[in-house]
Design brief:
By secondary structure, the protein is α/β, with parallel strands linked by helices. It is built from 14 helices and 13 strands. β1, α1 and β2 form a beta-alpha-beta unit.
């Protein structure tokens, strides 16, 4: 373990316990990479066999991997205390709910490190006594919320709202620079060149509300000629989605691609991104679309309205409003002037949602918690 030479008077242990790799894990990776540029001494504690462990190995990031037995793993919590003591760690930054729990339990074992909590989900904190304790533990210095909406929801469970700070998620804009339409999907699925693509890019999870996506496609199926709808992603809801598509006889309209690691290459080929989430922390796939000049139609779920500003950076409809979403899709697909306006507005707005900006704001909060000044 040989992190880069530290320019600051503190060290950080990032705790990310998920086995899979989704938006939250990508944000952890971006943060670690950016803090590395600032020469912050940092380590990652992840779960054995996780995608985060593979990432740390591939990037030579100082890490510890430990087997997670449950959502309330006392041994994992003890591991946090031991690592903080043996590596002189002053800040524990938790990046998921289980990590948050383990850090608080580690404090019960005597860990003295301050706790930074990242909150990325837009549902209310449980009203149970442990949740109340967990969100109001005296060692918690900041709760970083990825949107103002999440900050508002989380405030209901937190006694000291001064600890709540909005730090929007960010993306790597460089990842999309120079990307052009290569016709990858058209070639792969043998589509005529004139075929338009309306896509969603998301894990196939319940909160993404694919029922509304399929309902929206049903409304649009005879209104948009030469248009196919792609669901790009994988997850537990796949079978349910496939059944819904068959029930509505939309097999000829909707294509499920499964998980893809070439999103940056295929996004420029997409004519419109359609997001039908029921809940959403922020929605970084929308930011990806902005970076590729792809117009967005979305639901006003969670933090989405903070990036999709209606009639400025995209079009919004109410949650579960298939008819409203369909009307918005038609407007964008049939109105080039509107399309150009939304794309231009989105590109300007994107400046506030970069991984560099996210890391700078996070670092500022680290300093505030440990009493240092930038």
């Amino acid at each position: 373990m040989n992190p880069s030479k530290n320019l600051y008077d503190f060290s950080v242990l990032h705790v990310a316990t998920a086995l899979s790799w989704r938006g939250g894990e990508q944000q952890v990776a971006y943060l670690v990479e950016e803090l590395e540029k600032h020469k912050v001494r940092q380590y990652v504690l992840c779960s054995t066999g996780s995608e985060m462990e593979k990432y740390c190995i591939s990037r030579s990031i100082p890490f510890f991997a430990f087997h997670k037995r449950s959502s309330f793993d006392l041994i994992y919590a003890k591991k946090i205390k031991d690592l903080c003591e043996s590596n002189s760690i002053q800040l524990v930054h938790t990046h998921d709910s289980h990590a948050h729990t383990f850090a608080v339990v580690a404090a019960l074992f005597g860990n003295k490190a301050k706790i930074i909590v990242s909150r990325r989900v837009d549902f209310q904190v449980s009203s149970g006594p442990f949740s109340k304790y967990k969100y109001n533990h005296p060692l918690i210095g900041r709760i970083l919320c990825v949107s103002e909406k999440i900050k508002q929801i989380t405030s209901l469970a937190v006694d000291d709202n001064l600890k709540l700070v909005t730090v929007h998620s960010g993306i790597d804009i460089e990842r999309f620079k120079g990307k052009t339409d290569q016709g990858i999907l058209h070639k792969e699925y043998n589509l005529p060149t004139q075929t338009k693509i309306v896509a969603t890019i998301a894990a196939l999870a319940p909160h993404k509300d694919f029922t509304t996506f399929v309902n929206t496609v049903e409304i649009l199926s005879d209104k948009l000629e030469n248009t196919l709808f792609f669901i790009i992603g994988e997850g537990a809801e796949r079978e349910k989605i496939e059944k819904s598509i068959v029930q509505k006889s939309l097999q000829h309209k909707i294509i499920l691609t499964g998980f893809r690691n070439d999103v940056a290459d295929i996004l420029p080929e997409v004519d419109l991104l359609l997001i039908t989430s029921e809940t959403e922390g922020l929605g970084t796939s929308i930011l990806d679309a902005f970076a590729c000049s792809v117009p967005v139609v979305a639901t006003a779920a969670g933090g989405i309205p903070e990036i999709v500003i209606h009639q400025q950076t995209g079009l919004l409809a109410d949650v579960r409003d298939g008819a409203g979403l369909a009307q918005n899709v038609l407007e964008v697909m049939n109105n080039q002037v509107l399309r150009n306006k939304l794309v231009a507005g989105a590109l300007l707005h994107l400046n506030e949602f970069t991984k560099e900006y996210t890391a700078t704001k996070t670092l500022r909060e680290y300093h505030a918690v440990i009493g240092s000044a930038l």
